[in-house]
Amino acid sequence: MMHNILIFIFFSIIIVSNIAPSHGYDTLDPSGNITVTWDFLSDNGDTFDVKVSIYNFQLFRHVEEPGWKLGWSWRGDEVIWSMTGAEATEQGNCTRFRQKQPHCCEKEPAIIDLMPGAPYNMQSANCCKGGVLTSMTQDVTKYGATFLMNYQKSSISFPDGGNFSMPEKFTLGIPGYSCAMPVQVPPTRFTNDGRRWQQVLETWNVTCIYSQFLASPAPKCCVSLSAFYNTTIVPCRTCSCNCQGLPGANCANSDGSSLLELRQRAQGTKSPAPVVQCTNHMCPIRVHWHVKQSYKEYWRVKITITNLNFVRNYSHWNLVVLHPNLRNITQVFSFNYESLPSYGNLNDTGMFWGLQYYNDMLLAHGDNGNVQTELLLHKDQGDFTFRGGWAFPRKISFDGDACVMPLPDEYPRLPNTASIAATRPFIVFISVLLLLVILF
Fold it and tell me: Is residue 19 part of a domain?
């Protein structure tokens, strides 16, 4: 009987795991997502005019170069006649059109953003950022992208009916994101002068969620710790991101000839495979947290972010820290800082990022690839302590990916004053005994 129950539970887990969605959930940004909005502007008989918008509704995760590449699958024989604000990477086979060539005849088109400075006649409002989307916290003016498109209706009728048949199987072309099926929502309303409001014919949303496990099978950063009251520096855990000698563990030493060769091989590659410095942890990014000083009312922390990747710069980087004393942060030097939304009375999470044109670009290893800041935090006498690892963060993420933390029992400890006090009478006794021996 027990054997049959175990078999039933085993197959139930397999079925549920196949049904469950592959998206991730981030406790620090539970509502974060990228939403694709598809607005039907007009029905021209044979064609539709649509506006497609991409919004990054994530607090700290952003989209770097080479940027998004929006894809979908047409349900019938639709073709894109024209497009402004973006372009398809392939025109496809358009031989069935003799007089005028469409912009794209692919069954599964891939759409990319235009670069800044694109010709004016190819631009649309809120376009031409090279596919880069900032996070909601860093820059709310650059978290969206929009393009306009005219496409021919399908000659195939679908059983679900409706003239406004949506494509399916949307993708963002960014590692780690999975997209749900399109969902119809109330039509978008807009105004040109603030007095008269208009609405589109139909609006559909596609929600895309990030999962660190889908993005990479291994972590991308690790944390090391130190404190003024302990000479021990706790390094990143061994094999935090990979182990030397394993498949995919590309590492190199930082001598001049090999560094030049690595850079030459990476040139012209939009997203080169990471080649990191050969270390025990093999992580591209290392974050070091150092408890620097203790004053009567305040204590000081130094944070250093080091890029150990030889072939990649990190633009618009950010660091998210979970620490109980961040609710009493007094001053941050040379970084931007913003407290993230809290739950109830909790206010223990904050986001750091670089100053524009100063340290918002984390350069590749070998090019002074580190940035650092110092924090001044007020001591809350109700819970402040240096004992038990309280002065160290609970969680750190870099560019939205959780970093590997040291094990709690490895944190730098305060000197054991209790043991010193316990041995003091014995030391005094030995000293008196030696003195008596010398005298007599």
Answer: no
Q: What CA–CA distances, in Å, run from 272 to 19, 264, 265, 268, 281?
A: 34, 11, 9, 9, 20
215, containing H or E segment: helix 212-215
Under a CB-based contact definition with an 8 Å cutoff, are residues 223 and 288 in contact?
yes
Quote the domain boundaries for residue 174.
Answer: 24-214
pTM of the model: 0.82
DSSP notation for 245-285: TSTT--EE---HHHHHHHHHHHTT-SSPPP-EE--SS--SE
pLDDT in tens, 224-246: 999 999 999 999 999 999 998 88
User: d(Cα 42, Cα 399) in Å, to the nearest integer?
Assistant: 39
Regarding whether 241 and 121 lie in a shared domain, the answer is no
pLDDT band, residue 5 (cuts 50/70/90): very low
Cα dihedral 221, 227, 230, 232 in deg (nearest 10)? 20
**Are 54 and 84 members of one domain?**
yes
Q: For residue 183, what is the enclosing H or E element?
A: strand 183-185
Each residue's pLDDT tens digit, 124-168: 888 999 999 999 998 888 899 999 999 998 887 666 555 678 999
Residue 296 has pLDDT above 70, yes or no: yes
CATH number at residue 40: 2.60.40.290
Residues 326 and 411 in one domain: yes
Please check whether residues 268 and 203 belong to one and the same domain: no
Q: How many domains does the chain have?
A: 2
**Beta carbons within 8 Å of 136's beta carbon, 6+ residues apart:** 56, 57, 58, 59, 143
pLDDT of 66: 87
At residue 425, does pLDDT exceed 60?
no
Q: What is the mean pLDDT of residues 39-59?
A: 94
Q: Looking at 152, 181, 214, which one is the last position of a domain?
A: 214
Give the three-class secondary structure for 191. Answer: strand
What pLDDT does residue 349 have?
93
Same domain, 278 and 171: no
Does 107 map to a domain? yes
Question: Phi-psi bin for 45: left (phi > 0), alpha (psi -120 to 50), beta?
Answer: left
Residue 8 lies in a domain: no
